[in-house]
Design brief:
Layout lengths: L3 E10 L5 H12 L2 E6 L5 E7 L1 H13 L5 E8 L11 E3 L4
Parallel strand pairs: 2-5
Antiparallel strand pairs: 1-3, 1-4, 2-3
Helix pairs in contact: 1-2
Protein name: acylphosphatase
Organism: Variovorax ginsengisoli
Family: Belongs to the acylphosphatase family.
């Protein structure tokens, strides 16, 4: 079975609350590869790659986030770049 890829844009009070670190921990626990980063517009962006059930579980986690976050909505998009994800799950620099 080939892996599923989802590109996420998370809106709300999601910066400065440990969202990236918490998402990386959740992704690693689920066996999902990819990355997460803050964007200058106040959103958080992520790429999740892995087994369909694991990726969907991470999307559900993204809709809640860590306790300090307030998630208003999560856009789930097809990835713009179909290149493979890094090994593990990375926290990337702000773009």
């Amino acid at each position: 079975m080939s892996p599923v890829q989802k590109h996420l844009i998370i809106h709300g009070a999601v910066q400065g609350v440990g969202y990236r670190w918490s998402m990386a921990q959740a992704a690693e626990a689920l066996g999902v590869h990819g990355w997460v980063r803050n964007r200058r517009d106040g959103t958080v962006e992520a790429l999740a790659v892995g087994d369909a059930a694991a990726v969907e579980a991470l999307v559900r986690w993204a809709q809640r986030g860590p306790p300090e976050a307030r998630v208003d909505r999560v856009e789930v998009l097809a990835p713009r770049d179909q290149a493979g994800a890094p090994e593990g799950f990375e926290q990337r620099a702000t773009v």
